[in-house]
Amino acid sequence: MTAPTTTRTQTDKSSTLDEAIAEISSGMTIGIGGWGSRRKPMALVRALARSEVTDLTVVTYGGPDLGLLCAAGKVAKAYYGFVSLDSPPFYDPWFAHARTTGAIEVREMDEGMVKCGLEAAASRLPFLPIRAGLGSAVQDFWGSELKTVDSPYPDADGRTQTLIAMPALELDVALVHLDIADVHGNAAYTGVDPYFDDLYCGAARRRFLEVDSVVSTAELVETVPLQRMLLNRMNVDRVIHAPNGAHFTFAGDYGRDEAFQRFYATSAADPDTWRAFSERFLAVDEETYQVRVREWASEQEAQKA
């Protein structure tokens, strides 16, 4: 039998998860959009965790994205403003383990410094000055990597300000999740906290967009206010249709799966329970993952009956 051929126009950026992950190599720096346990591109993260890639540097406002990659042994170094699950138990168990055992090199910083570093990279600048971090111990966490800079413009009283010179957080690849897009990469987010994904894409050489719903450009324009259009096609290289892909974090029209997130966290407490969790949910492709999540939810409801 001859395999069906897929017809794509030059601007059709439709892609599979595997095609996107195949572009990522060991040693790369990747930026992961979203915020804590919100709007994380978890389908891409799960696919990356299943891959052979390792030794990654990750830039993130972290949540379970960083935790899962630490659990899979993919992370060598992480730049982050925080790492949180947003709700109890709040801490990500796998990131906490990697952080406290020294398994990964960390660059902790103020949240504004992450934004400043992405802005510098998106503007093709080597650094941008920022006050955040001054008067704190943040430089102690960066070794000799974080510098200061004296302003060339004296204040009115003649004194010169010394500021943090936040280095550009240049990314090889950005991974982001929005809830509706066309095949060209124009994309919108209809939920809360629609921040930073455009900066991640601006700071990256390659930009992969995971999306819950793919519609025509006409439908996208008709259904979403212009202010919700966070990405345009100039800053997107691949569009991956991944319904419910942000699970178990929340995205535009679905909430965080709090029960499953607690299950993820408690499973990490014991090698046997984590092995069972991994075999059921992480060692499988995305389609199977979604089926098994629904089965697991049904089992929880049955136990309540």
TrEMBL record:
Matches recorded under Pfam families: CoA_trans (PF01144)
What is the name of this protein?
A: CoA-transferase alpha subunit
SMART domains assigned to the protein according to its UniProt record, in alphabetical order: CoA_trans
Q: What is the lineage of its organism?
A: Bacteria, Bacillati, Actinomycetota, Actinomycetes, Mycobacteriales
Highest taxon of source: Bacteria
Q: Which SUPFAM superfamilies match?
A: NagB/RpiA/CoA transferase-like
* UniProt cross-references to Gene3D superfamilies, sorted A to Z: 3.30.30.40, Glutaconate Coenzyme A-transferase
